[in-house]
Amino acid sequence: MSASPNNNREVKLVRHVKGAIHPEDFAIADTIVPPPGPYNVVVRNRWFRVSISTRLMAQEDAKAAEGIPFPPLNPGDTLADGAIGEVVQAGSACSLAVGSLVMHPFGWREYASVPEHDCRLIDSDDPDPAAYLGHGWTAYAALTRGIQVKNGDTVFVSSGAGAIGSMAGQIARLLGAARVVGSTSTREKAGWMQDELGYDAVVTRDGGPIAEQLAKAAPEGIDVIVDMVGGDQLAAAIGLAKDGARCVLLGALTAELNPDKASLQAPVTLDSCQIIFKGMTLQGFSADHAPDAFGLWIRDLKTWKRQGRIHLPAATSKGIESATSALRQACAGQLKGVVLVEL
Ligand SMILES: NC(=O)c1ccc[n+]([C@@H]2O[C@H](COP(=O)([O-])OP(=O)(O)OC[C@H]3O[C@@H](n4cnc5c(N)ncnc54)[C@H](OP(=O)(O)O)[C@@H]3O)[C@@H](O)[C@H]2O)c1
């Protein structure tokens, strides 16, 4: 970690990503962060999040990805993602004090110049980065605002070991689910999900037809589907849905992590008659639709942590030099939980 904003290091895109992530797609640049203007603060970042959506945004045709809530990246741009850090300089019109711990959207750099209105003050007594930068709140918002989990529900979480999924399975249980089934790539990850996250059963992409595995894992059918994957996993879950089942659609990893090319198009054939006859709800949901859920998530998380009923899985690597490797590993499915870099 460099010692001052005059010796900042940040990760820039060198060339558009084609297919898999290559280390040569990115470079660490030395920069100077100038003193803040009246409404800006300079933050010494301590942690930032690494998200697989960066791969999509770093492709040449990213601007064609309609509706995605991040700006496309061009060569020369500094990457960005959620970060937590300490205010080291504050502009003359700022109310944030030097020393405040804040969350903001300018990770992938050691020091950031941030408009004060983009900073969220966080609790410095418990600055657990996975609580704030992780996707527990996305899962919490989806399961409390997108759809509601009821006592006794059987819940299926696709990509149940991922940043959102590792939290969705646990939160579904805490909200009353009786049986929680997840999906992942390998038996090794499945074992970890059962031991660490409390899944009752896990289906795997290397374990044969998903519909057959899911029928065994949820023999009485599924009440709630939390879908991050799309494709055959979504179709299989809808096939096993009970009357009145609720499905919240959060992502499309089959498209986003397609090894050849990241995209947002994940076409899937769904049996619409089943959706109609079963009276199912299919709800698309973005956590951005419920920003006020963030405070409620932090409140409930504190209680659940105190009671020892929730884990915040994170794959944390150290130093800005580790960040592009963490992105490559995340996209290759080699990590569990939220992916963080500690500076
Ligand atoms: N709606 C919202 O508010 C919201 C917010 C943030 C993100 N999202 C979206 O939600 C989805 C999940 O996000 P996340 O941050 O939780 O992702 P993530 O866990 O970081 O995604 C990486 C995981 O995806 C799985 N994966 C890799 N290749 C796959 C493939 N071909 N098919 C299916 N899964 C594959 C791997 O897990 P396994 O090895 O366990 O399979 C990998 O570890 C993404 O599409 C993301 O863009 C939505």
UniProtKB/TrEMBL annotation:
The answer on whether this UniProt entry bears the keyword Oxidoreductase reads yes
The alphabetical list of record keywords is:
Oxidoreductase
Keyword Oxidoreductase listed? The answer is yes
| UniProt domain Enoyl reductase (ER): residue ranges | 19-341
Check the record and name the InterPro entries matching this protein: ADH-like_C (IPR013149), ADH_N_2 (IPR041694), ER (IPR020843), GroES-like_sf (IPR011032), MDR_fam (IPR045010), NAD(P)-bd_dom_sf (IPR036291)
Under the heading SUPFAM superfamilies, the entry gives: GroES-like, NAD(P)-binding Rossmann-fold domains
Q: CDD domains of this UniProt entry?
A: PGDH
Q: What is the protein name stated in its UniProt record?
A: Zinc-containing alcohol dehydrogenase superfamily protein
Q: Which GO terms describe its molecular function?
A: oxidoreductase activity, acting on the CH-CH group of donors, NAD or NADP as acceptor
Source organism of this protein record: Aureimonas frigidaquae
